[in-house]
Structure formats: C-alpha cells, structure tokens
Write a structure and sequence with these properties.
Elements lengths: L1 E5 L2 H23 L2 E5 L6 H7 L9 E5 L1 E3 L10 H13 L3 E3 L7 H12 L6 E4 L22 E5 L2 H9 L12 E5 L1 H5 L3 E6 L5 H9 L17 E6 L8
Parallel strand pairs: 1-10, 2-3, 2-6, 3-5, 6-9, 9-10
Antiparallel strand pairs: 4-8, 7-8
C-alpha cells in the first residue's frame, strides 16, 4: 500500500482524486469504458469535489456505491444515494449509476445489484475508513469470506455514533441499525483502490489498519494486502502512526 500524507483535507482530496483519475483515464484509453465505486460520508467531500471538476468521459463510466441504510427514504438528508446524486451523478452524468435502494426488499436488492456488478470489472474503488475501522459498512468483526457482492449488515454502536457525530442524524436512536453494504471481497476485486481518510477522529483506525495484523476486527486492514491500493491521509489522521 502506498501512503501519502497531505498537509490538509483539501490537499488530500486533490491528491486522491488525481491518482484515481489517472487510472480511470487509463481504463478509458484501453477499453473505451470504465467502472468505478464511490464512497460517501464527510471524508469524501474534498475528493469528490475534485473529481467533478475533471474533464473525463463520464458518459462512458459506470458508477456503483458502497452502502445504504435499510428503510431510509432517498429524501432523508443521510441517504447515500441522495448524497451521490447531488454531489456527483447529477453533475457529471455518468453512463449509469446503480444506486442501492434502501427501501427495497434487502435480500432482493442485494441479489439485483450482485447480478449487475458481476458483469463489470471495477477499475477504481474510492473508499474511506470508519472510526471503528470499518470498510464500507462492514463493521468489526467483518465477513472476509462471503463471495456475495452485496450483503445485509448490522451496524455497531460506534459506527452509528459516527453517523450521528457527523451530523447526518439528530440522535443515536434515529440512526438505522441495518444497511446494505458491498462486501469486503467485492471491494478487494477492484483493480485499484483509492482510500481517503482525513481528520484526527480517524487516527486510531488508521494506526490499527497499518500497524496491527490483518484482522476481521479491523476490517480496513485487509487493504494492506491489495496489490494496488493507495491511502491518503492528512496530518491529523496520521498523528498516531509510529
């Protein structure tokens, strides 16, 4: 894993986007199309802001996203499909955006998305790391073994507290307890992974990801085994690294 430490979140977002765009452009040149995965949350604001400025053939790019709360309507401020439509999809008009429908039957939705993503080779996955070390909504102990591309997961309290702390929900009891998440193995099938992790509140998770053994208790630690993964930190998120 290649690690870059930037002075601030803006520089982090720019560096992460530029690296991801290089691989997207390579895929477009080689295949005439590309498929990418996008993460959401406060950690991705700067990176997504840089992506939408780029002059790329978005009309030839298919977009998937990592996770969505079960039972949450798209009109809710915390909806991840709402987040991506407003901050990315509506701005760049990609070839396709396969949104996770949190209001659909969860098992049927996992199966539907699984059938679609199996037809695509993911060129670049843009991801983050949660305060509890989760990757997508795969909270610890994460399932490293399932081959299903999308799964139903239970959200632990630390994960739910993070969502409240970032301002998406007014109180802990308002945060859904279940979500649909892309699985660990599906994420790891991506040709390139770009991981953006700003802020001091992520410092413990970053340290555990890089300095602890690969473990289901630190789901993001699996990224260190990927053949082409890039981790982008700022000074606060890197502050606990030895």
């Amino acid at each position: 894993m290649e690690i870059t430490i930037s002075e601030n979140k803006a520089a982090l977002g720019k560096a992460a986007a530029e690296m991801g765009l290089m691989y997207i452009k390579n895929a477009l040149e080689e295949k005439g199309s590309a498929s990418i995965i996008l993460a959401t949350g406060a950690s991705q604001f700067e990176m997504l802001g840089e992506l939408v400025k780029a002059r790329v053939g978005w009309s030839k790019i298919t977009v998937f996203h990592l996770d969505e709360y079960i039972g949450l309507p798209e009109t809710h401020p915390a909806s991840f499909r709402k987040y991506l439509k407003e901050r990315f999809v509506d701005l760049v008009k990609p070839a396709a955006f396969y949104a996770i429908d949190g209001e659909a039957d969860p098992e049927e939705e996992c199966a539907r998305l699984g059938r679609i993503i199996k037809k695509h080779k993911i060129d670049v996955a843009f991801v983050g790391i949660g305060e509890n070390g989760h990757l997508a909504f795969n909270d610890p102990p994460a399932d490293f073994d399932t081959e299903e591309p999308f799964i139903v997961v239970e959200l632990d309290e630390e994960c739910r507290r993070q969502q409240m702390g970032e301002g998406w929900f007014p109180a802990l009891e308002d945060v859904p307890q279940k979500a649909i998440s892309m699985s660990i193995r599906q994420i790891m099938k991506s040709s390139t992974i770009i991981c953006s992790v700003p802020d001091e509140r992520k410092a413990r998770a970053v340290r555990n990801t890089l300095e602890e053994p690969v473990s289901q208790l630190v789901p993001a630690s699996i990224l260190t085994t990927h053949k082409n993964a890039y981790l982008y930190l700022d000074r606060p998120s890197a502050s606990l690294l030895s």
